[in-house]
Amino acid sequence: MRFIRLIFVVLLALVLVAVALANRQVVTLSAFPANFGQFLGGTWSVGLPLFLVIFVAFALGMLAGLLWEWMRESKIRRTSRARNAKVVRLENEVGQLRESHAAPRDDVLAILEQPEAKRPAHGRAQLPAAR
Question: Which terminus of the chain has a smaller tally of CB atoms within 10 A, N or C?
Answer without folding.
Answer: C
